[in-house]
Design goal:
Blueprint (H helix, E strand, L loop, with lengths): L1 E3 L6 E5 L13 E5 L8 E7 L4 E3 L5 E5 L2 E5 L7 E3 L5 H12 L11 H4 L2 E3 L1 H4 L5 H13 L6 E4 L4 E3 L2 E4 L7 H10 L3 E6 L2 E2 L4 H7 L27 E3 L2 E5 L5 H18 L3 E4 L21 H12 L4 E4 L12 E2 L12 H13 L5 E2 L9 H5 L4 H12 L5 E2 L3 H4 L2 H16 L1 H14 L4 E2 L1 H4 L12 E3 L3 E4 L8 E5 L5 E4 L4 E3 L3 E5 L6 E6 L1
Parallel strand pairs: 9-10, 9-21, 10-13, 13-17, 17-18, 19-20
Antiparallel strand pairs: 1-7, 2-4, 3-6, 4-5, 5-8, 6-7, 11-12, 14-16, 15-16, 22-23, 23-24, 24-29, 25-28, 26-27, 26-29
């Protein structure tokens, strides 16, 4: 497929990683192979500000080269160029209706949205022990935050794929969960699709063994395997392992049994499902998959598997537009630039444009662990990340403001949590709209206001069609100029009313998040 970029045309799509460089335009030089380079939220979809879209049922390679777009797919699946729309919203609505219509009767749990979530990762890293987990939860309440979703992150388990507690870290898991429930939390715990290739649990699924009738149990009912039936070995940030294949009923049943035990025996309410990109370059001993499964199918199966649990969270998803899956953006660094605050808004906008509106920004202050292990948190950056997150559909803390920031900066973060809670009725309004129509909750200004020249604006967003949110994303910035969309009046966070179509320069001291409500 080849097409020319139209005059004044802009494009978004493919993969959330790098979406801060979007939109692509007539001078862009960029290429991506979605079979091999997709990371976290991705889809075989590109959308144009002129109403066009490109779609393929399978991963494809695409290149933007100074005004020309070329795309090819190594699978037997056509690449479709649709030119029926006039603007970005048209492109999205037409693509959604044709290729990823939303499930009927979607209702994602409101507990994800009503209060900020908390995750133990940045305070405990891999030392997820019951004493510190309980203390973590107690500190949340002691510091005046409302208990809601609490996620216990990775490191609690004996080994990958054996979801038993490491007794040196957690000796009384039921007592721990009971205490967390007593404090008012809904408790989720981290799991992944990986499994350590040693021990009786693994061997019981891997080794062929004889039945009483003498027939050998099949070797292909568990795990991703290469073409000759041997086990696939994959590399993730935590090491080397085998990986489950959730296209196989026996692997689904195996995981269900373990997760059911965590819920029924210990009282956990849900799961943070991590990993699962299933990228070819992660597999060390072959990419020809036994059974003919594609890597994209494996990734999608993992997400569909866990989305049946009421309380779930995913980060690595492929082609999940139209599903009720609750997702979080990929781990952000405690940086202004380079996968830091600069990416938060464009990444959040992107997920809505591929049909994934139920999105949580990354942990306030950043969830990339090296900062907690080796660095320090800056008051200004931490606060601005909290402000950028406050009017997202969800908000999540991990590092504690009161441990790492000045009292003044910590209080600003608390005020942003209070603002999120205050705005929950508005958030729920647009959540319901997203569930019933598929329209994004976090919207690009060009989506809501076509033909007003907002295509390259990446530091503001719309919450639904009613609130324009303009966080500070530049270090040291104390003024921000906002050009208000035409055709309506706006009132800002201070109660000052403005006519649409005017540019307003706002004073933005550290404690202020600028936002506008559309009126009339």
């Amino acid at each position: 497929m080849e097409t020319k970029i139209l005059e004044g045309e802009y494009w978004w799509g493919g993969c959330v990683v790098g979406s801060e460089k979007m939109p692509f335009h007539s001078e862009t030089v960029f290429k991506i192979d979605l079979e091999r380079e997709r990371r976290t939220q991705s889809a075989p979809l590109f959308l144009s500000s002129k109403g066009r879209f490109i779609w393929c049922e399978e991963p494809f390679a695409i290149e933007f080269n100074r005004g020309t777009i070329t795309a090819s797919c190594e699978y037997d699946s056509p690449i479709i160029l649709n030119e029926e729309g006039k603007n970005l919203r048209d492109a999205y609505i037409n693509a959604m209706n044709a290729y990823f219509p939303f499930e009927k009767d979607i209702h994602t749990p409101r507990e994800f949205y009503e209060h900020p979530q908390f995750n133990t990762w940045m305070e405990l890293i891999k030392n997820q022990n019951e004493k510190d987990i309980i203390r973590y939860a107690e500190e949340v309440v002691e510091n005046g935050y409302t208990p809601g979703i609490l996620m216990i992150d990775g490191g609690w388990q004996k080994k990958q794929g054996v979801w038993d507690f490491n007794p040196e870290l957690i000796s009384d898991p039921k007592g721990m969960v009971d205490r967390l429930h007593e404090l008012g939390f809904i408790v989720m715990i981290w799991v992944s699709p990986f499994i350590c290739t040693e021990g009786d649990h693994f061997l019981s699924m891997y080794q062929p063994r004889a039945t009483e009738s003498g027939d050998e149990i099949r070797r292909d009912n568990h795990f991703v395997r290469v073409g000759n039936g041997d086990l696939c070995i994959t590399k993730w940030w935590s090491g080397f392992s085998a990986i489950h294949n959730f296209m196989l009923p026996d692997d689904c049943a195996e995981m269900d049994a373990q997760l059911g035990r965590l819920m029924n025996e210990f009282g956990f309410d849900g799961f943070k499902f991590d990993g699962g990109s299933y990228l070819p370059n992660s597999f060390y001993n072959g990419t020809d998959i036994y059974g003919g499964y594609t890597f994209a199918q494996l990734s999608q199966a993992w997400v569909r598997y866990g989305s049946k649990y009421k309380y779930h969270e995913y980060k690595d998803t492929w082609k999940m537009g139209g599903y009720h899956t609750v997702q979080r953006l990929w781990d952000k660094r405690h940086n202004w630039k380079n996968n830091g605050l600069d990416c938060l808004i464009p990444n959040g906008i992107f997920t809505g444009l591929i049909g994934c509106p139920f999105i949580c920004p990354d942990m306030v202050g950043g969830g990339e662990w090296t900062c907690a292990a080796y660095g320090t948190f800056q008051d200004e950056l931490f606060v601005r990340m909290a402000q950028a997150s406050a009017l997202f559909p969800m908000m999540q803390f991990s590092a504690f403001p009161w441990r790492h920031l000045s009292p003044e900066a910590s209080e600003i973060c608390h005020n942003m949590a209070r603002l999120h809670e205050k705005m929950f009725p508005v958030i729920e309004k647009f959540l319901t709209i997203a569930e019933t129509t598929g329209e994004p909750m976090v919207r690009h200004l060009a989506y809501q206001f076509p033909d007003e020249g907002y295509e390259t604006v990446n530091d503001m967003f719309m919450l639904g069609d009613e609130y324009l949110v303009a966080p500070v994303v530049e270090e040291g910035q104390r003024e921000k100029t906002v050009r208000l969309p035409k055709g309506t009046k706006w009132v800002n966070d201070l109660g000052i009313e403005y006519e649409g179509g005017t540019s307003v320069t706002e004073s933005v001291p550290l404690e202020r998040l600028v936002y506008y409500k559309r009126i009339g």
